[in-house]
Each structure stands twice: as structure tokens, then as C-alpha cells.
Design the sequence.
């Protein structure tokens, strides 16, 4: 879908290989020798780890992080939604809009 880069395939492959290994052990030992517990913990940690890796490898994430804010194009795109926009504490906000108490 173009959301992440190719590095995500490699790093998530490690987590996926761990999951496959634990599933293979579970199938091989038919749940004995701690394989059921290993597969359980692999299944608990698999999705959160893959999602964190996807966020880390999201295209443009590090450029935006290093730049520390919005690009001029993003400011221009947002400014068209409102007549005036100001930057308050590093965030864009329409002029005159007050923060709720």
C-alpha cells in the first residue's frame, strides 16, 4: 500500500519468524515441553511488535520527526481550511479559536 518502506519487511520478518518457530514447536511437540506457553506468548506479543515496527518504518516519519514540525506545504494546505492559522506550542490552530477548559 506504500505506507512503509522495504526495511519493514526485513525487521517484521524477524518477529514473524519467531511466531512461525513457536507455532512449529507447538505442532511438533503437540503442546508439550512448554511449546503451548511459548506459542501463547508469541501470539500475545506478535501484533503489538509488528504495529510498532510499522510506525517506526512509516514513510516520512523520521523526516517529520527530525524537522520537528510541519513543512511549508502542510502549513499551506491547512491554512486553506481557515482564514488565518497560527502556531501555538508547535501545533497549528485557527486564529481566534480558544482551547476548551
Sequence:
Amino acid at each position: 500500500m506504500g505506507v512503509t518502506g522495504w526495511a519493514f519487511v526485513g525487521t517484521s520478518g524477524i518477529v514473524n519468524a519467531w511466531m512461525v518457530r513457536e507455532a512449529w514447536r507447538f505442532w511438533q511437540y503437540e503442546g508439550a515441553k512448554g511449546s503451548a506457553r511459548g506459542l501463547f506468548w508469541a501470539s500475545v506479543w506478535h501484533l503489538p511488535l509488528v504495529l510498532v515496527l510499522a510506525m517506526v518504518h512509516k514513510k516520512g516519519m523520521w523526516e517529520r520527526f527530525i524537522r520537528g514540525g510541519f513543512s511549508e506545504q502542510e502549513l499551506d494546505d491547512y491554512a486553506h481550511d481557515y482564514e488565518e492559522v497560527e502556531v501555538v506550542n508547535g501545533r497549528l490552530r485557527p486564529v481566534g479559536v480558544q482551547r476548551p477548559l
Observations:
- The longest strand covers residues 85-88.
- The longest helix spans residues 7-29.
- The chain has a mean pLDDT of 81.
- The two ends are 40 Å apart (CA to CA).
